Amino acid sequence: MLHRSGGTSMFGGSVFLEILAENNGSYVLNDVRNQDDYYLKLANQPKAVYLGERGSFGKRKQEKIKKIFDEYVSCPSLDFSKYDTKTKERRTYQRFE
Question: What is the pLDDT of residue 44?
């Protein structure tokens, strides 16, 4: 299923996302134009978040991605190091209760 995000990417232009997984209103999304870019959309958040390495001015450091993840998820019991935010194949998921 394909959805237009209703927003723009940090690089300008619309973002078209494919739903890869859905659970209780939370989604793992893939950018159709940039297949290496994944987004997380939690049911309790108004917008999805990009957790990849590509930044506005070059490559993001892991510390920056971890900070974004921690602020977005807002759950201290989730360990960022258990998640691969770069590829579809190596992702691990924890069930959200």
Answer: 92
